[in-house]
């Protein structure tokens, strides 16, 4: 009897141990509350290509599960909130913030809280550096070197004070801090020239030497440091511009040539992915661009995502019903919805007061609007300015005597109209027919002669 009892107890202990043995998870929990917001989309992304969109309720609350394949840095973006967070499988992270006070109010709790609040501190320091950019970049080379070295030392001290950081993260982050210093240094020549009103200013060879010697083929650092990745991307743009100037190549071909010259395949795949993600929604030849990307990339996950994007863009093909906007505030008073404009063509300018290329188009748009004022077409400008900047929007309309129908979204970029049109950058121009169907989701700009040619083919 005693032997049987012993066996039973032993078996029970084994079963209890088995039940307690944790099953590995491939997800993290992410929740929080953002005050002073109307809600919208919170985006989580990583330099390895991970993306996730989380809905933030109009109360500011959100909660979701992130299925991640690897531990690492993930970028969080919601309105003015932009920061990095270290997320691990099995983590439970909570966020508290005030959208009006953005990064200054941000607090993270839960898993890896001390490390994650370091990343918040780092972002706040970078914002502070840029807010004081005129003073910083007006300095001479030696003084500027001291400023960015002190900036680096401050972050290193903060990082070294944190306990229990995974060794690989600490090593990568120390390199990333230095890449932040180098990024600021790479901007010095242009920024100093601007603030000193000397556009011909050139930094000394000694000052630029370490930038010229920097290797831009480190895939590990590319996938960890946004500063390193930005320097790689900037180098590609510079090469593309050189090919555009010297070889008289169309910019798209020049950019492709620069991309194909990247020797590290991981970096090449990532840059190809970024380029096609931006280009495809605006492309006039989506099938060809998709095939070119498939031929160049070896990353099957990227290829799968771009195929999905290509498929989703079919709703923006010519003849498809246009996504709608509803009850956008009208500068002239009241609100306006897209359905209110049926019966005429609608030419839409998606813009913002802070956007230089948008403001460049305003005089051209005014001339086109005046020419077609009594024709079968509405000219609608939709501002993506934040609600807190509404007075700036109204002031610019008055100062520039902008005509047409002037509207502003109810939540800057975080609206269904913007997201359904896959708008990745502004200005973007859209042409809709009198029945509310798409003519072109990426129509010619007012400064482009092809716009009038398009209007002529439609007998507007």
Automatic annotation (TrEMBL):
It holds the Pfam family Redoxin. One of its GO terms (cellular component) is cell envelope. Residues 316-460 form the Thioredoxin domain. The keyword Secreted does not apply. It is found in: Cell envelope. GO terms for biological process: cytochrome complex assembly. The keyword Plastid does not apply. CDD domains: TlpA_like_family. Coiled coil: none annotated. This is TlpA family protein disulfide reductase. It comes from Seonamhaeicola algicola.
């Amino acid at each position: 009897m005693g032997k049987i009892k012993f066996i039973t107890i032993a078996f029970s202990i084994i079963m209890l141990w088995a039940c307690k043995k944790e099953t590995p998870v491939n997800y993290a929990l992410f929740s929080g509350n953002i005050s002073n917001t109307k809600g919208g989309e919170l985006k989580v992304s990583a330099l390895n290509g991970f993306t996730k969109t989380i809905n933030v309720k109009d109360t500011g609350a959100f909660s979701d599960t992130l299925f991640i394949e690897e531990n690492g840095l993930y970028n969080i973006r919601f309105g003015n909130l932009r920061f990095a967070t270290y997320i691990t499988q099995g983590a439970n992270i909570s966020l508290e913030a005030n959208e009006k006070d953005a990064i200054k109010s941000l607090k993270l709790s839960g898993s890896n809280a001390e490390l994650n609040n370091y990343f918040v501190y780092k972002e706040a320091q970078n914002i502070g550096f840029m807010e004081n950019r005129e003073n910083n970049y007006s300095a001479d080379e030696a003084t500027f070197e001291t400023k960015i070295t002190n900036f680096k030392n401050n972050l290193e001290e903060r990082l070294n004070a944190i306990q229990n950081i995974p060794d690989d993260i600490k090593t990568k982050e120390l390199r990333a801090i230095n890449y932040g210093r180098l990024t600021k240094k790479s901007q010095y020549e242009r920024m100093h020239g601007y603030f000193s009103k000397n556009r011909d200013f050139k930094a000394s060879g000694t000052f630029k030497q370490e930038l010229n010697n920097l290797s831009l083929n480190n895939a590990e650092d590319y996938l960890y440091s946004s500063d390193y990745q930005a320097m790689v991307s900037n180098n590609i743009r510079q090469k593309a511009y050189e090919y555009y100037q010297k070889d008289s190549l169309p910019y798209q071909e020049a950019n492709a040539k620069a991309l194909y010259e990247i020797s590290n395949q991981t970096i090449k795949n990532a840059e190809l992915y970024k380029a096609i993600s931006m280009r495809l929604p605006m492309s006039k030849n989506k099938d060809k661009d998709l095939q070119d990307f498939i031929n160049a990339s070896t990353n099957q996950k990227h290829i799968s995502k771009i195929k999905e994007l290509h498929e989703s863009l079919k709703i923006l093909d010519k003849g498809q019903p246009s996504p709608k906007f509803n009850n956008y505030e009208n500068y002239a008073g009241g609100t306006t919805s897209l359905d209110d404009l049926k019966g005429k063509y609608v030419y839409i300018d998606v813009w913002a007061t802070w956007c230089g290329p948008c403001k460049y188009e305003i005089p051209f748009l005014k001339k086109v609007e005046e020419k077609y004022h009594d024709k079968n077409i509405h000219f609608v400008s939709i501002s993506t300015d934040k609600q807190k900047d509404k007075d700036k929007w109204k002031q610019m309309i008055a100062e520039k005597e902008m005509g047409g129908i002037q509207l502003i979204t109810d939540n800057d970029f975080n609206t269904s109209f913007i997201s359904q049109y896959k708008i990745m950058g502004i200005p973007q121009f859209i042409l809709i027919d009198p029945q509310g169907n798409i003519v072109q989701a990426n129509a010619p700009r007012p400064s482009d002669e092809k716009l009038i040619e398009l209007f002529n083919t439609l007998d507007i």
